[in-house]
Write a structure and sequence with these properties.
Radius of gyration: 18 Å
CATH class: Alpha Beta
Number of domains: 1
CATH superfamily: Class I glutamine amidotransferase (GATase) domain
Distance between the termini: 24 Å
Number of strands: 12
Helix content: 25-40%
CATH architecture: 3-Layer(aba) Sandwich
Length: 305
């Protein structure tokens, strides 16, 4: 069964053309089942692209999923299409009081700022705090992972000597291979990374509540989890589409910013060639496993969370 989104949302037509099963609210109302309730706090400047990337992955499942798009009411977006947020999003503060099976908190282009300097930080920490008791499983991505680790465990972030940028090999710890969240994963898999900072790995290892699921010498921490995967912290971007890193690379070039060619991305390391996609299968598997894990373990009545 599909994700349930408004027919007017740009992602509806894009995903329909890709044969991703999406459903209008009217059609879903005639199905006698309780769909999963998943909220997305979209902090990325590429608002519509990020919606499509995440909804593409959330739609690759036999489960029906109601999607609620959340924005920071304390922040004025300069990149979303005119009227888009007002039409399809609700302020995150207004969602407090509802309960969700799943929550996704995306990355954001603010990682070089101290957390407290981010203009919507106070609003975001209310969402993070609320999610602990009112969301079955929260998936934090990139800066969203750093923000969650900092808020919940006081773990800070450290600047990298240069941007970690490209496609990197990752593996799983022995215990993680046998958990539902990573069922079917290969011993080594690839995932995009795009960040200037990293969470303090030593502090994570010293935190008894956190389990490191995946780390490598080259890319550092990739996935950590807590409370039996009710909190999941992913430092990279499995959701990225084939050209996301390419767009980021050319954007930074056009701005005269110091940027290297994304590693392991273009054939022959040649930016004139079309990127080779080697992470798509594991991206779909990860999000499908997450939804299935939530579906199997979340209470039928969200009031029982």
């Amino acid at each position: 069964m599909p994700i349930r989104i408004p027919k007017a949302l740009p992602a509806y037509e894009v995903l329909g053309n890709e044969n991703v099963f999406v459903m209008t609210e009217d059609r879903a109302a005639h199905q006698d089942i309780r769909p999963l309730e998943v909220a997305i706090v979209n902090l990325m400047p590429t608002t519509v692209d990020t919606e499509i990337q995440l909804l593409r992955l959330l739609g690759n499942t036999p489960l029906q999923v109601n999607i609620t798009l959340l924005r920071m009411g304390s922040h004025e977006s300069k990149n979303a299409p005119q009227g888009h947020l007002e039409r399809f999003y609700i302020d995150a503060g207004k969602a407090l009081g509802r309960r969700f099976d799943g929550l996704i908190i995306t990355g954001a282009p603010v990682e070089t700022l101290d957390f407290e300097e981010v203009d919507y930080w106070d609003e975001l920490i209310r969402v993070i705090d609320y999610s602990t008791a009112n969301v079955f499983s929260t998936l934090h991505i990139c800066w969203g992972a750093q923000a969650g680790l900092y808020r919940r465990y006081g773990i800070g972030k450290i600047p990298l000597s240069k941007k970690l940028f490209g496609i990197f090999p990752h593996g799983l710890s022995d215990g993680a291979r046998h958990t539902p969240l990573f069922r079917g994963f290969d011993d080594e898999f690839l995932a995009p990374q795009s960040r200037h900072t990293e969470s303090d790995l030593a502090a994570i290892k010293n935190c008894a509540a956190l389990n490191i699921v995946s780390e490598t010498e080259e890319a550092g921490l990739f996935i950590a989890a807590a409370r039996d995967c009710r909190e999941i912290y992913v430092t990279g971007h499995l959701e990225y589409d084939p050209l996301t890193l390419d767009r980021e690379y050319r954007r930074d070039l056009s701005k005269g910013l110091p940027i290297e060619i994304p590693g392991n991305y273009y054939p022959g390391n040649d930016p004139s060639r079309e990127p080779l996609v080697r992470w798509r299968a594991h991206a779909h598997l990860f999000f499908s496993n997450w939804l299935n894990f939530v579906y199997q373990d979340t209470p039928y009545d969200l009031g029982d969370l």
